[in-house]
C-alpha cells in the first residue's frame, strides 16, 4: 500500500487524535489556552508526528477531513471545559488549503454552535507559507474575525512574512517562531533580530505569542519586553487531553 493509500485508510478509520500544548500568559503565569497538535495514532498504538504526514495530506487534499477530525476531537475532549471557562481558548493550525477555501469556517460554525462553544474560544493559526491565493486567504481571515475567531499568524519571522506581505492581512496576533526565541541569551547573528521582531508586532498593535520557550531566562527576557503569551517546554510539552485538563485545573 502506498503512503497515500495508508493515509486515506487512516482518515476513513478516524485515526487522528489531538495533543494540547499549554499557552501561558507570561505576566501572570496563568494558563490561558493551548495549541491543538494533531497526531496519527496507528492501530498498533504508535503515534506519528504531523511533520511526517501533513505535507502529503496537504498535497492530496486529505488535510480537509483531517482538520475536521481535529475539530471533532477538540470538542469531544474539551467541550465541557470550554463551556465552564469562557476565557479558555484552543488554537487550531490551518493549512493553506483550509485558509484559501474558507470551507473550514462553516465546519467550525456548525460544530461549535452544536457544542455551545464560542467562536472567540477558537484561535486560528495560519502560516503565510503557501498562501497561494492571497486574496482568497484574506477574505477567509476577514470572515473568521467577523465570526469572532482570533487570527494568529504562525511561524512569524520565517519565510515570506515581510511587512509588506503582512500589511494587508487581517490578524490579531503573531506567533514568533522558535528559531528567534532560541537565540535569546546567545551570541548569534539572529539574536539581534529578535527584539526587532517583537517591536514590529507591537508597532502593528498585535498580540504576541512566543513559541518554543525552554528556559526561565527566555521567559524573563520576553516578560521584560511585554510579550503577552508564551508556549514551550518550560511550561509544558504537548499533552494528551486528560493530562492537559489536569494541568489546566492545577494551574488555576
Ligand atoms: O509538536 P508538533 O510535532 O506537533 O508539530 C509539528 C508541526 O505540525 C507544526 O508545525 C504544526 O504547525 C503542524 N501541525 C500540528 N497539528 C496540525 C494540524 O492539526 N493541522 C495542520 N495543518 N498542521 C498541524
Ligand atoms: O505549529 P507549529 O509549527 O508552531 O508547532 C509547534 C512545534 O514546536 C511542535 O512540533 C511542538 O511540539 C514544538 N515545540 C513546542 N514547544 C517546544 C519547545 O519548547 N522546544 C522544542 N524543541 N520544540 C517545541
Ligand atoms: Mn502552530
Ligand atoms: Na510555529
From TrEMBL:
It is found in: Cell membrane. Residues 1-252 form the EAL domain. Signal peptide: none annotated. This is cyclic-guanylate-specific phosphodiesterase. The chain holds residues 265 to 516 of 531 of the full protein.
Amino acid at each position: 500500500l502506498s503512503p497515500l493509500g495508508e493515509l486515506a485508510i487512516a482518515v476513513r478509520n478516524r485515526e487522528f487524535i489531538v495533543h494540547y500544548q499549554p499557552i501561558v500568559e507570561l505576566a501572570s503565569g496563568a494558563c490561558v489556552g493551548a495549541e491543538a497538535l494533531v497526531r496519527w495514532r496507528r492501530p498498533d498504538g504508535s503515534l506519528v508526528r504531523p511533520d511526517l504526514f501533513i505535507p502529503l495530506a496537504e498535497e492530496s487534499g486529505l488535510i480537509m477531513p483531517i482538520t475536521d477530525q481535529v475539530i471533532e476531537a477538540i470538542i469531544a475532549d474539551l467541550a465541557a471545559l470550554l463551556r465552564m471557562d469562557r476565557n479558555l481558548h484552543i488554537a487550531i493550525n490551518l493549512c493553506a488549503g483550509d485558509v484559501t477555501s474558507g470551507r473550514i469556517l462553516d465546519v467550525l460554525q456548525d460544530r461549535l454552535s452544536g457544542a455551545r462553544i464560542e467562536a472567540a474560544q477558537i484561535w486560528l493559526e495560519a502560516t503565510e507559507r503557501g498562501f497561494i491565493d492571497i486574496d482568497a486567504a484574506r477574505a477567509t481571515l476577514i470572515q473568521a474575525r467577523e465570526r469572532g475567531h482570533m487570527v494568529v499568524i504562525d511561524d512569524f519571522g520565517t519565510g515570506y512574512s515581510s511587512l509588506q506581505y503582512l500589511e494587508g492581512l487581517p490578524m490579531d496576533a503573531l506567533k514568533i517562531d522558535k528559531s528567534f526565541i532560541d537565540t535569546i541569551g546567545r551570541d548569534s547573528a539572529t539574536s539581534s533580530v529578535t527584539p526587532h521582531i517583537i517591536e514590529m508586532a507591537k508597532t502593528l498593535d498585535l498580540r504576541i505569542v512566543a513559541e518554543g520557550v525552554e528556559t526561565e531566562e527566555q521567559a524573563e527576557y520576553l516578560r521584560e519586553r511585554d510579550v503577552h503569551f508564551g508556549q514551550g517546554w518550560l511550561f509544558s510539552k504537548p499533552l494528551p487531553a486528560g493530562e492537559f485538563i489536569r494541568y489546566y485545573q492545577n494551574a488555576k
